[in-house]
Amino acid sequence: MPEKYHIEVKPTSPRWTPVGKISAIEKDGCFGCARCAKKSCVYDIYRNRKFDSKQMCDTIDYLCKMCFRCVQECKGRILSRAVNPEFLQLGDQYWKPNIIATIWYQAETGKIPVSGAGYRGPFSGPGFDSMWTDMSEIVRPTRDGIHGREYISTSIDLGRKLVRLEFAKDNSLISMPPPILDIPMPIIFNPFPWGKINKNVRLALTNAGFSLGIPMIIESEEYFDELRPYDSIIMPQFTPKSFETHKNILKRVRLCEFIYEDSIMNYVSKAKEINPQVIVSIRVKLNKEAEVVAQQLTQEGAEIIHLYADYQGKEYEEASPRFIKDAIRKVHLRLVEMQMRDEVTIIASGGIGLAEHLAKIIICGADGAGIDLPLLIALECRLCKRCTNNLSCPVEMENIDTKWATQRMINLIGAWHSQLIEVMGAMGIREARRLRGEVGRAMFFEDVEKETFGQLFGGRQKDGK
Amino acid sequence: MANNIGMEVKIAPSRFRNPLSKYIIRRSPRCTKCGKCVEVCKFGVHQRSGVAFCRAQEHRCIGESCNACIEQCPEKALSLAVNPLTAVLGDYRWTSDLILSTWYQAETGKLPPVGLEYKVGNSGGGFDKLRFKFPKEKFNLKPEEISTCIPLNRKGDNAHQIEIGIPIYGGGMSFGSVSLSTMLGKAKTAKFWNTFTCTGEGGYPEVLNPYDNHVITQVATGLFGVREQTIQRVRIVEFKYAQGAKPGLGGHLLGDKNTPAVAAMREAVPGTSLFSPFPFHSVYSVEDHKKHVDWIKAINPAVLVSVKVSTPTDVDMVAIGSYYADAHIIHLDGSYGGTGAAPDIAKKNIAMPIEYAIPKVHRFLVAEGVRDKVTLMASGGIRTAHDVAKAIALGADGVIIGTAELVALECVRCANCESGRGCVRGIATTDPELSVMFDAEWAAQRISNLLTSWRNQLVEILQHLGMKSITELVGKTDCLYHIDYEEK
């Protein structure tokens, strides 16, 4: 049996007090009781609180577990809780405060977020929230059967596969199997949509990718010599222009990426001339044409097609852009229809923020996903985008320590890995490869709603958001 | 008989000194202590003790719809605001209003006067979007004429013929996941209401002996605490194949909650995490399940068999399979149900909400011609009396509640049931200090008060619909409409 893929997570405290969900309110009027409600706090939050003079905040907002015991027991009734407005301001419409807080938790602990009580969120929602995964087959296991978690594999293959092998009359193999790379998680590190990456952060990303076996895309201009030891996971990205100046990197790497334009396949051939073993990905903007482009590229022999949506998972269309999951499903189905889906690897990126998104985008037809912002958020980024205006970073990204940053990213991926196994176990799926396009393991809000309530109540009037 | 069930309503006040309130009232120093506010307030918010004022009983205030004290204060010294705390209490499914109104009902057995939502949450789908469509016609039905009883054995076999007084029974919560007082409180309530509670999978504590006739015991994959005697003691046995909040994952009692008492009950080592594996490794087909049922029936021939399953997309097939394997009760546990501990990814994403599963299964059983031979119970997100009625109108015979009972015991849904010493509010914990924060009497009274209020609401709904029995409501989807849909 091959060695088990194991991610070494280690608790890694944040450098800054994370923004808490709530604010503790304390009014004047303490009676100074001997049996103070604060002292009997089961979580000891009042004893452990500190004032952080740098951030001008009380750590209690982060420590409080919201049991309301002190609020309800204080004789002077001076304690209360309210929303922390700063928390609500985190992120944006897509990258909601809860997603950011979840990423922080995972980067700190490396653990699966676990909680009691039922699900607390809305019934369904836009984007990935309009689908549920399903474990129906496991009730009557017919396919992969049921396995212990230790048998579930999260690896996928990058590269092109032959549909069939051809042999000569003397039984020797004629077909030349193209190079293929097995990666242990269905993930590629995608360049950040914004944010200044300094050397330390870059080295941390590289280190994390290297120890996890996850490829990292880096613009070829940004490659520097200290990255050489990690060439096995480095995926330089070229434009036809930068190709000429930086093509020498190709000799050392196993993967690379070209930004799509017409007749890009000529450049792919040029790359193959330099290094026949290099696996080339073509980065294609996700829009209405993506299906056609993907089909054409596959016909022309592309190995990996990397479809990228914007950072909120929307395709690049002015008018009514589709969400990444819907657009990818279309591309996938088109290739299935043309009977060429198995030949090419599809990577989808944009808007992948939680482990569940990873599982869901694979169900929708991608082989794997490119992730970017979650890695930045693992380093405590608050998505304030101040850096895009050349303003100072509130969490001083520039002073980051490489070792710390590496571990935070490893923790995040470790937590995702465990969660992926968790949902795959529940779905009765043994391999991430088999999860691809497996919509039988999913339910889509629109479908189920129509099937049940639609039959009962007629036509839907509003968009069920 | 049916209407003489339940415990007499007695006020069961909060265990805590300060009730949480939706509104806050501020009194400025302009107040001259004239006492006008005490005079005008109908709800007892303002009270006087001698010359001084007592602290305003803000939890009784109904808010702006009254405003009497604010408007009539000669000095304009009072002001009213929504308590900022309500924004952090509760969530989409259990809004702060639902928590506070459930507490009110558990305390008084009555509906809150006005100003608190007690019917729906804010999840934006399912029950929260369904409403009852009442006919204009007035039916002259007295509450005494209306029955809320449902039979649990519709198979007509030789097993116990059981009828429960309300279409509701208590869900499985194991010793270990909740405290003994909670379990006992639930059992006492079940007896008074002539219904059931469930031990969950974690053994059958001796203190429940007097309530054997109202206890369901669970046989789940870990077989914790399952013995011949426990099967023989009860009238209903439930097979737990999956739990709605974490289907495909099995149960999980974190090590910290596995105290020596819990471990003894479960015959396990204290302090270790206890997993109920998924699935039953002896059940890979309906035939295998039938063997399980036969095994239980050999030990206790008259027992009713309930099969608890979650809600995959082919839940209808699972239901019919269970029926043919001799189940009396099919218990569907929807995906948004409660749990002591589950990965967030599972709670949010696996299986379908109960609102979809009920009509799907109901329709299928009707089409198969066996609907009247089986009892369909639904759980997983039943929070209010209106949820109960809606679930029944969608096609269930009755419902099973869990979280609602815990909220009656003053759960705030902080979701920390799983960590450290367990529930800080003394409900879902076996910590020696925390688990004695209340006694079973109080717990029983609170849950019973809530059920009284719920039953009254169910009766009122049936009155409006002109139905004499809750069983008439089953599957009557034409009594419902969805606020996002055009009229059919």
Write a structural description:
The longest helix of chain A is centred in the last third of the chain and has 26 residues, at 402-427. In chain A, strand 12, helix 9 (265-274) and strand 13 form a beta-alpha-beta unit. Helix content of chain A is 32%, strand content 15%. An eight-stranded parallel beta sheet of chain A has the order 9-16-15-14-13-12-11-10. Chain A has a two-stranded antiparallel sheet with strand order 1-4. By secondary structure, chain A is an alpha/beta fold. Chain A is globular and about 95 Å long. Chain A has 16 helices and 17 strands. The model of chain B has no long low-confidence stretch (mean pLDDT 91). Helix content of chain B is 28%, strand content 14%. In chain B, helix 3 packs across helix 13 (440-465), helix 8 packs across helix 10 and helix 11 (385-394) crosses helix 13 (440-465). Chain B has helices at residues 36-40, 68-72, 96-108, 180-192, 228-233, 260-266, 286-299, 315-324, 344-349, 354-367, 385-394, 403-408, 440-465, and strands at residues 23-27, 48-49, 52-53, 78-82, 130-132, 150-151, 163-164, 168-170, 197-198, 215-219, 236-240, 251-253, 274-276, 304-310, 329-333, 342-343, 375-379, 398-401, 480-482. Chain B is an alpha/beta fold. Chain B is globular. In chain B, strands 8-18-17-15-14-11-10-9 form an eight-stranded parallel beta sheet. Chain B is built from 13 helices and 19 strands. Strand 5 of chain A pairs antiparallel with strand 16 of chain B, so a sheet runs across the interface.
